[in-house]
Design goal:
482 residues; alpha+beta; Heat Shock Protein 90; six-stranded antiparallel sheet; three-stranded mixed sheet; 11 strands; 14% strand
Length: 482
């Protein structure tokens, strides 16, 4: 029937549908968590960089404020005795761990006072200053950061003082508006907590990201479970329908694409189920009809077999009854030829021989009747048959009828040899010759001609006569029994 399936096929299909290797919900959770993790870690890295830059800028602004404060404190005192007091102030302030070095130079760049707490930072600053080729700006816009972690901020603040009213600014090399540059204060501040603070901030952000990922897993699982629920229901319904069960309606809870898919699935599966049921009923009805027809055919075959057996019995009885007088005629003819052949005239001997030959032909025809019941199941024995010999023998058998009606028989020799049943070929030509003699009627030129044509694939034999012929309306029925 249409809805039957083999158990192995159904089981394997059920296993492949019920237990996928990678469920959809798991893949959605993994990919969502992965995207959230990547996004969160990327944001953490960016925020950590922004925070580090902010702390670095704050450190630089602090170095700038300190250097500008010291420059303001020493302004106008580079040429008097108060410079010694400023040096003492710088030395006392520079002892703080945060100061890497402090340098005070005059307007020409000659050092006036220098305090070094970090030789490595000072050496790196010297390298940078030499790279500038002495063309340092009067005012630095931003601080210079040294060290692998940019923990040392260097800022150079100019020491400026107002010009006296009696001095013209034309003679001064360094001036800014109505002020002149007396020198520079270079301050380098260290922020030893900057690397640790950056690392702690980065670690804190990673922890936050991890917490976000952990919290997002159950939330995503809950959302994906609700989202994949219609898909699971569709999967289960398809699995059930594949086993041949009546399809279960999938609940339509939303009107989005999944809801439309579930609605369409319910409609299609219901139609398929109805069609399957109709096919099942049609198959059952067809099987019932086949059983009935088979029973009828068996009864007909039994009846036909009985009729064939009766026909065989009848044919054997008829052939026995027909052969009995023919055997007597043939025996008497042979006896006359044996005993009185020398005493009879030649014409009488010839007629007796024709009688014996006709008896033999009729005996063969009667024997062929026994094979009628086996024509379609048992093919006749085939052999090489010389058509010219067959036609000559038939001419001799029918010589009396041909002479009685004055019919001339012409054979267009040579005729070929074929591989066929000799008795069947002889019957065909004999029937055609009998009909030609029978329907010659009152022809003024009674003639019968036998010949053949070869088209390269088949041999076409023909028998032509000058008799009345066959009417056009009877030509389609020539090969039928009548």
């Amino acid at each position: 029937m249409a809805d039957r399936q083999s158990p192995s096929t159904t089981d394997s299909t059920a296993e492949s549908i019920a237990a996928p290797r990678y469920p959809l919900q798991r893949k959605v959770i993994l990919w969502t968590v992965l995207m959230i993790s990547v996004g969160a870690f990327s944001c953490a890295i960016v925020l950590n960089g922004i925070a580090r830059d902010a702390m670095t800028r704050s450190h630089g602004m602090y170095a700038r404020a300190v250097s500008q404060t010291l420059a303001s404190a020493v302004s106008g005192r580079l040429r008097d005795s108060s410079l010694d007091r400023f040096r003492e102030l710088v030395d006392s302030v520079g002892q703080a761990p945060r100061f890497a070095f402090v340098e005070v130079v005059d307007a020409r760049g000659d050092p006036l006072h220098r305090l070094l707490n970090d030789a490595a930072a000072w050496q790196e600053f010297e390298v940078w200053r030499q790279a500038q080729s002495g063309s340092l700006p009067v005012f630095m816009a931003d601080a210079l950061f040294l060290g692998d972690a940019r923990e040392v901020a260097v800022f150079r603040a100019p020491i400026v003082s107002r010009l006296p009213e009696t001095v013209t600014t034309r003679d001064l090399t360094h001036r800014i508006d109505d002020r002149r540059v007396e020198g520079f204060v270079v301050v380098a501040l260290r922020d030893l907590t900057l690397p640790d603070t950056s690392e702690r901030l980065q670690a804190a952000m990673m922890v936050v990201v991890g917490v976000i990922c952990l919290i997002s897993v159950p939330v995503i699982a809950w959302f994906t479970s609700r989202w994949s629920k219609p898909v699971r229901q569709l999967n289960e319904a398809v699995h059930s329908f594949g086993r041949g069960e009546r399809p279960r309606a999938v609940p339509v809870e939303t009107r989005d694409e999944l809801g439309q898919l579930a609605d369409s699935f319910n409609d299609v599966t219901e139609r398929l189920w109805q069609t399957r049921q109709e096919l099942r009923r049609a198959n059952e009805q067809l099987e019932h009809q086949v059983r009935q027809r088979t029973a009828e055919l068996e009864r007909v075959n039994e009846r036909l077999g009985a009729e064939l057996r009766d026909k065989d019995k009848f044919m054997r009885a008829v052939t026995h009854d027909l052969n009995a007088p023919l055997r007597n005629i043939g025996g008497m003819t042979e006896l006359l030829l044996i005993k009185y052949k020398t005493e009879f005239a030649d014409d009488a001997v010839t007629k007796l021989e024709r009688i014996a030959a006709n008896v033999k032909v009729q005996t063969d025809l009667i024997d062929d009747l026994l094979e009628l019941s086996r024509i379609r199941t048992k093919p006749a024995r085939r052999e090489e048959v010389d058509i010219e010999v067959v036609v000559r023998e038939l001419g001799e058998q029918m010589a009396y009828d041909l002479e009685a009606k004055g019919i001339s028989l012409t054979v267009l020799t040579p005729l070929p040899t074929v591989f066929a049943s000799r008795n069947r070929v002889q019957q065909v030509f004999q029937n055609l010759l009998d009909n030609a003699v029978k329907y010659m009627l009152d022809s003024s030129d009674p003639r019968i001609m036998i010949g053949f044509e070869n088209d390269g694939r088949e041999l076409h034999f023909w028998v032509a006569d000058t008799g009345c012929g066959i009417a056009d309306v009877d030509l389609p029925h020539v090969t039928q029994i009548f």
